[in-house]
Design brief:
This protein is about 25% helix and about 25% strand. By secondary structure, the protein is an alpha+beta fold. The chain folds into 4 domains: about 130 residues, Tetratricopeptide repeat domain (Serine Threonine Protein Phosphatase 5, Tetratricopeptide repeat), CATH 1.25.40.10; about 260 residues, TolB, C-terminal domain (Neuraminidase), CATH 2.120.10.30; about 90 residues, Sandwich (Immunoglobulin-like); about 120 residues, OmpA-like domain (60s Ribosomal Protein L30, Chain: A, 2-Layer Sandwich), CATH 3.30.1330. The strands form 8 sheets. Strands 2, 3, 4, 5 and 6 form a 5-stranded antiparallel beta sheet that branches. Helix 2 runs antiparallel to helix 3, helix 4 runs antiparallel to helix 6 and helix 6 packs antiparallel against helix 7.
């Protein structure tokens, strides 16, 4: 599958470093005087490495050095093979041994030595060595360009380490174990918001299929092929499961009905818990170019993906398409020059907080090939500048993709860990504080008709109370089931709307506290009829004051919308307080608060004849006044239908 940024290793890698350095007048080592046995072993090693048999090549080179301990070319060649195997410590040892044997003869390998130093994380010494290499005036332009490219990587790494000290951070990826990993290739994981289901790709020979594992009692169960009609004789890859586990969007390549080489497809989970046959997302999303690496926002409204379609900034760019209330996807938009570069940008992953995007790119300053980056939205929805995830997450090699669990810190990715025999396995690790996403909880449940108790398809909106920024807007399924995510650190207004019904509102206070548990809220919506009432939970007043706070306006505007959609509707606004203070003072306060709400609605064009306000003081409490929670619930504003 093209451009999925997964490292499937060829068995035909030619080690270009098996080249004898140019002879120098100052050297004493003469490769022409090496004994024949050692030379034969060296040639065997070359043949083995061109076939991808690295261990066998190492063995022949080791025997060559036993036969001829001064065989510098064998040291340098073995260092090159160790470097290809990412065994950088052994590579460094061989390079340094060669330098001690003849510094002048081995100096042509200084660039490769610097690469192994950088591979081990010693970027300062790597920078020192590449500068020494560039002092050679006999280098050709191509070599100078390659060395300067590496130099810029090392300089970036040194500077990044200064600006982002580790402060005790330990990078310790944990293999996810044999319930998930096998001797085949496992890669491109995705996970549900509760962290209990993972779907990933497994490549058996040349066939890619989806497998799933469920976490039960904190233990991942044996992975099995996904149930249903997803896996085919074609290659399925680069998938993303929705946060609620009900949708799967993936990349299908060379499908007969495809628009291009690789297209995006969607499958829905049916009531039997199996995946339905996938549907192509169509010509609005897919083109004759390459589309891959989908990532669905938690509210299912935004689909991020990578594409080589025209109109981008480079090879592949990250795009987004938006889904409207009718389920239709919009014409994709390029995420712009803040994120995309003249290089390849891809593998986007939008976190459950709907504000943090991880992706990879080879078009930005970094450690070597493709690096992983994080970019965040501000409260106006604008993307800020991307930030490199830093070493050791990023290395001198090509980094593919990663996903981050709802806790904001647990990341999952595929890695070979330098083991060419077993290939790619799935690993988990913890992110540093400065590159974490927001810890994100969720609220889920079902929306019912209060009179019939039947599930209601409805619209659910989540916005920040302080700024009014709409974080997510989603549609429930036909049965009224919903799930919306709740990033920590802010206070949120939660609203459920359905035409013909009074809206439901709630708020969640997550600012200044660590969210610790999800919520289950089943909601009864009331049909608009005489006597129906609802608490307006997002109307706010300062303590003992009756002036509306600006954070109340968004909810009051929903009342305005309700009145405009139902022009015959007449309502009563009722104000209530807790029992703190004198009853007479509380009664007056509640009256004035009700009047303030009515005045706001009138200023928005609602006729005075359709509105009335009344204060009830501390009467009719809905909770006990013995606790602050109870008192907060009793300080409320209610809307009651007088006539419709």
């Amino acid at each position: 599958m093209k451009k999925l940024h997964i490292k499937i290793y060829s068995t035909a890698i030619i080690i270009s470093f098996f080249i004898t350095p140019a002879l120098s007048k100052a050297q004493w080592y003469n490769p022409e005087k090496i004994n024949k046995k050692a030379s034969y072993l060296y040639q065997f090693a070359y043949e083995e490495v061109t076939s991808g048999k690295y261990a066998e090549s190492i063995a022949h080179l080791t025997d060559a050095l036993k036969a001829e301990p001064k065989y510098i070319d064998a040291n340098l060649a073995r260092a090159d093979v160790y470097a290809k195997m990412k065994n950088y410590s052994m590579a460094i040892a061989d390079y340094e041994t060669a330098f001690t044997k003849d510094t002048v003869y081995a100096q042509a390998s200084l660039l490769q030595y610097s690469i192994s130093l950088a591979g081990s994380g010693n970027f300062e010494k790597a920078l020192e060595i590449v500068n020494k290499f560039l002092e050679n005036r006999n280098l050709n332009p191509r070599t100078i360009k390659a060395a300067n490219s590496r130099k810029s990587n090392y300089e970036f790494a040194v500077e990044y380490a200064k600006e982002h000290p580790a402060k005790g951070y330990i990078f310790n990826p944990q293999n996810m174990g044999d319930s998930i990993n096998t001797t085949y290739l496992e890669y491109l994981p995705s996970i549900t918001v509760d962290g209990n289901k993972m779907i990933f790709n497994r490549r058996v020979n040349s066939d890619e299929d989806f497998y799933e594992s469920n976490k039960i009692n904190a233990v991942w169960q044996k992975a099995t092929p996904v149930k249903g009609r997803l896996n085919t004789n074609f290659n399925e890859g680069a998938q993303n499961i929705s946060q609620d586990g009900q949708w799967l969007i993936f990349t299908g390549c060379n499908y007969p009905e495809g628009e291009g080489s690789c297209d995006l497809y969607i499958s829905y989970k049916n009531k039997n818990g199996e995946w339905n046959e996938a549907e192509n997302l169509g010509r609005i999303v897919n083109t004759e170019a390459w589309e891959s690496a989908p990532s669905l926002s938690p509210d299912k409204r935004d689909l991020y993906f990578s594409s080589t379609r025209p109109g981008g900034f480079g090879g592949s760019d990250i795009w987004v398409t938006h889904r409207n209330e009718k389920g239709q996807w919009s014409k994709p938009e390029n995420l712009g020059a803040t994120i995309n570069t003249a290089g390849d940008d891809g593998c986007p992953y939008i976190h459950a907080d709907n504000q943090t995007l991880y992706f990879n790119s080879n078009g930005r300053a970094g450690y070597g090939m493709s690096d992983l980056f994080v970019v965040r939205k501000n409260e106006t929805g604008k993307w800020q500048m991307p930030e490199n995830l830093g070493y050791p997450i990023n290395t001198i090699d090509d980094e593919g993709s990663l996903i981050v669990a709802a806790d904001g810190k647990t990341a999952y990715y595929a890695s070979d860990k330098g083991n060419y025999k077993n290939g790619l396995d799935l690993y988990s690790f913890e992110l540093r504080d400065n590159i974490k996403a927001l810890k994100t909880l969720w609220v889920k449940g079902k929306i019912y008709d209060k009179k019939t108790n039947e599930g209601l398809p409805s619209s659910v909106e989540l916005r920040t109370i302080d700024s009014g920024y709409i974080l997510s807007t989603l549609q429930t399924n036909e049965d009224g089931n919903y799930l919306t995510t709740l990033p920590s650190g802010k206070n949120y207004a939660f609203t459920v709307n359905k035409k013909g019904y009074l809206f439901y509102s709630e708020n969640f206070s997550l600012a200044g506290e660590i969210a610790d548990s999800p919520r289950v809220i089943n909601i009864l919506l009331q049909p608009i009829e005489t006597g129906a009432s609802v608490i307006l939970n997002n109307i706010f007043f300062a303590s003992k004051k009756f002036e509306l706070e600006k954070t109340s306006y968004a909810e009051l505007d929903k009342v305005v919308l309700l009145m405009n959609e139902n022009p015959k509707l007449i309502i009563l606004i009722s104000g209530y307080t807790d029992n703190v203070g004198k009853p007479t003072d509380n009664l007056l306060l509640s009256v004035n608060r009700a009047k303030a709400v009515v005045a706001y609605l009138q200023n928005k064009g609602i006729g005075a004849k359709r509105l009335s306000g009344k204060g009830f003081g501390e009467a009719n409490p809905v909770e006990l006044n013995a606790t602050e929670h109870g008192r907060a619930k009793n300080r409320r504003t209610e809307l009651t239908v007088i006539t419709n």
